Amino acid sequence: MQVQELNSHQLILFKPLKPNCFLFWFIFLCTSFLPVLGIIILGGGSRLTCERSIANQGNCELVQSPFWIQVKQKFPLSDLREAKIEKSKEVDQETGEYYYYVVLLIKDSPVRFTFTSRGGEGAKADVKPIVEEINQYIAKPEIARLNIEQPEWIIILVGSIPFFAFNILFIALDIYEGGSNCILDRDRNSFTLTRKKLWRCIDIVEYPLSQIAAVEVDTSDNDGMGGTSYRVSFQLKSGEIIPLTQGYYSYDVIPIVSVIRQFLNLS
Q1: Most exposed: 11, 43, 66, 142, by fewest CB within 10 Å?
Q2: What is the pLDDT of residue 66?
Q3: What is the DSSP letter of 1?
Q4: Is residue 109 part of a domain?
Q5: pLDDT digit string (tens) for 81-99?
Q6: Is residue 34 part of a domain?
Q7: pTM for the complete prediction?
Q8: Chain-centre distance of CA 133, in angstroms?
Q9: What angle separates helix 153-174 from helix 21-42, to the nearest 10 degrees?
Q10: How many domains does the structure of the chain reveal?
Q11: How far apart are CA 146 and CA 52, in angstroms?
């Protein structure tokens, strides 16, 4: 804590807000990995493009990006037999639901077109329009062009940046080490302690100044990381201990303790 004001009537102490850098970087690194994990789970993008000239004559191109690798496959339109919904062979162990995919039958060989990260009837409903559009194109020669595209991994990544940036900002604000403000007022015979976070006040306590029996220094071993940290506390005549700060700090608190004891005429 620091001395903000000292005179014969008042002693005002404050501890400024300070970011907890270790927690910030730990949460930042963990949160930054989530978009990559989402890409792995969701898979990449797929695009099917077909151009028809007459009847079933034409060409198709299937582009698949399971991750950052892009695979292209070109084939005659006549090789595209149908699209169908395929259900996973086993249920997901966590959700107990089946997963559903769109599969293209290209020259009697099944090729998975879509990648989905969730199961259940909702996923089945998502892929059903894709199947219907592809089969409609195959069945109706008057439709000249087909273009179906699923989101690519880069879109998933870029789209997730604002969401995760907001979360990182919110977490960073919340892990700010709280500030404290302590006012010892002789005229009012009171001391007022205010604890706050960056955007909100946590609590305010007020006691008679005459109830302070001693000013103590509490110590901590830094959670086994080596060294010692300190915290200043008031011991009331009732036996209650009132810490002036929410945490322990490595700086020397003896000068602050001396100022408080001198102001309160305590030995």
Answers
A1: 142
A2: 61
A3: -
A4: yes
A5: 999 988 888 887 777 888 8
A6: no
A7: 0.45
A8: 37
A9: 160
A10: 2
A11: 9
My answer on whether 55 and 11 are in the same domain is: no
- The CA distance from 104 to 83, in Å, is 5
- What integer pLDDT is reported at residue 246 of this predicted model? 74
If asked whether residues 8 and 67 sit together in one domain, one would say no
Asked if 194 and 131 sit in the same domain, the reply is no
- Dihedral of alpha carbons 16, 19, 22, 23, sign: positive
DSSP 85-107: EEE-SS--TTT---BEEEEEEET
The set of long-range contacts for 2-8, using a CB threshold of 8 Å and a minimum separation of 24, is: 2/256, 3/256, 3/259, 6/259, 6/263, 8/186
Distance of CA 74 to the CA centre of its chain: 41
Residue labelled with tokens 């162990």: 93
In a domain, 110, yes or no: yes
How many helices (H) does the chain have, and how many strands (E)?
4, 17
pLDDT of residue 65: 73
Radius of gyration over every alpha carbon of the chain, rounded to an integer in angstroms: 33
Kindly state the tokens that stand for 69. Answer: 């690798």
- Please provide the size of the chain in residues: 267
Domain interval for residue 139: 45-150
156, 36 contact by CB (below 8 A): no
Q: Distance between CA atoms of 186 and 230, rounded to whole angstroms?
A: 27
- Confidence band of 57 (pLDDT split at 50, 70, 90): confident
Place of tokens 């699209």: 83
Q: 114: which 2 tokens?
A: 């879509």
Sorted by sequence, the CB contacts under 8 Å of residue 82 that are 6+ apart come out as: 104, 105, 134, 135, 138
Domain presence at residue 137 = yes
Which run of H or of E encompasses 225? none
Indicate if the pLDDT at residue 223 is higher than 60: no
50 with 137, same domain: the answer is yes
DSSP string, 156-220: HHHHHHHHHHHHHHHHHHHTEEPEEEEEEETTTTEEEEEEE-SSSEEEEEEEEGGGEEEEEEEEE
